[in-house]
């Protein structure tokens, strides 16, 4: 089948076309309007989605050299995400399916982040994880360890009780005066810093769960104390601060993942979500392969942050099982995996 995927859960409007599991196009329109606010403003996001959705879908079809008549089904992000943003993608998908008389497929955004591993390029096929595998899903809104039993059968075995890892990066970056989203900047400055320059305490949390709010608070107090003595403390230590912070976040993430792998005996280990762009985390995965004999799976950079290709591939697995929804479907902002 040829499937059109639509993603609009947060601040990126995206449309993609896949044929079987092979990607034909993946168009993403980001939104610059949020930068000056230091975070995504929901009302502005939904308005921008409305402006972007039609041109983005047009471009996806043009890039894929596919006409609307050739599309077999349309898959869209039903949740989780911002209600106003989800509404735009959902309404568009419903309208498209109705007009073309083709099946409509709802997709869980988090499941899609995990299934991004199964997207294949037309020129080069890559290895995909074998079931069961563990997936560390780390994004702006989520941090969890997912036990993936099958394409559409997933169980969360650990998750954050407060902030997500991406949120921890972004909030700490904000405290340092860096623009939103600060995660990529922390990664960049870390490259020239010493990860052992400063020590930040790690949370003590049961099982495979995470917590990041304590780190954010202690980082804030740490900076405030030093700035009292040295007003330019942040400027003078930017790289070391970023490197030390990044190391702490990566260590927190990896400690639980390693424990989960030991407990379950699973050595197929995948990474997903926007934070998987982080170079420190990627290196930690490579170290895990050396140290624990893991088979590691790190998705293509363009499929880690929000994109419609992952929505389309999830749509494919549901298409094969004939899991369709009707026109009465509504977005679900707090949808679980
Ligand atoms: P969710 O998928 O949970 O709804 P989201 O879609 O907002 O959240 P993503 O787009 O998957 O999240 O990821 C964005 C997050 O990834 C941001 O918090 C951003 O700072 C972080 N991020 C992106 N690149 C890096 C990097 N190189 N290092 C650290 N964090 C990064
Ligand atoms: Fe996402």
Automatic annotation (TrEMBL):
Query: Where in or outside the cell is it found?
Result: Cytoplasm
UniProt remark on cofactor binding: Binds 1 Fe(2+) ion per subunit.
The record's SUPFAM superfamilies line, in alphabetical order, gives: Actin-like ATPase domain
Q: Name one GO biological process term.
A: tRNA threonylcarbamoyladenosine modification
Q: Which residues are listed for substrate binding in this entry? A: 137-141, 170, 183, 187, 278
Q: What class of enzyme is it?
A: transferase
Required co-factor(s) are: Fe(2+)
| EC number of the protein | 2.3.1.234
Sorted alphabetically, the keyword list is: Acyltransferase, Cytoplasm, Iron, Metal-binding, Transferase, tRNA processing
Every copy of the Gcp-like domain together lies at 22-312
State the family it belongs to.
Belongs to the KAE1 / TsaD family.
Protein name, per record: tRNA N6-adenosine threonylcarbamoyltransferase
């Amino acid at each position: 089948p040829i499937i059109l995927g639509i993603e609009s859960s947060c601040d990126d409007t995206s449309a993609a076309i896949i044929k079987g599991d092979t990607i034909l196009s993946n168009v993403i329109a980001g939104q610059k309007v949020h930068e000056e606010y230091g975070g995504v403003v929901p009302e502005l996001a939904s308005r921008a989605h409305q402006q972007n959705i039609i041109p983005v879908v047009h471009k996806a079809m043009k890039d894929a050299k596919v006409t609307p008549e050739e599309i077999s089904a349309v898959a869209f992000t039903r949740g989780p995400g911002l209600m106003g943003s989800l509404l735009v993608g959902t309404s568009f998908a419903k309208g498209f399916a109705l007009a073309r008389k083709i099946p409509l497929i709802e997709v869980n955004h988090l499941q899609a982040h995990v299934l991004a591993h199964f997207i294949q390029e037309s020129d080069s096929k890559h290895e995909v994880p074998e079931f069961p595998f563990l997936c560390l899903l780390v994004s702006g809104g989520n941090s969890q360890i997912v036990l993936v039993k099958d394409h559409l059968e997933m169980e969360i075995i650990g998750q954050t009780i407060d902030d997500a890892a991406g949120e921890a990066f972004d909030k700490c970056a904000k405290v340092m005066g860096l623009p939103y989203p600060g995660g990529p900047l922390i990664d960049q400055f870390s490259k020239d810093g010493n990860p052992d320059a400063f020590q930040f305490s790690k949370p003590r949390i049961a099982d495979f769960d995470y917590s990041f709010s304590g780190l954010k608070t202690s980082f804030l107090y740490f900076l405030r104390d030093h700035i009292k003595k040295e007003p330019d403390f942040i400027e003078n230590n930017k790289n070391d601060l970023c490197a030390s912070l990044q190391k702490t976040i990566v260590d927190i993430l990896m400690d639980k993942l390693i424990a989960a792998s030991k407990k379950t005996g699973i050595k197929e280990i995948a990474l997903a979500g926007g934070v998987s762009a982080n170079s420190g985390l990627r290196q930690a995965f490579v170290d895990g392969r050396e140290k624990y004999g893991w088979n590691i799976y790190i998705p293509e950079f363009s499929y880690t942050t929000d994109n419609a290709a992952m929505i389309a591939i999830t749509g494919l697995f549901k298409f094969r099982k004939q899991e369709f929804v009707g026109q009465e479907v509504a977005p679900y902002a707090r949808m679980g995996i």
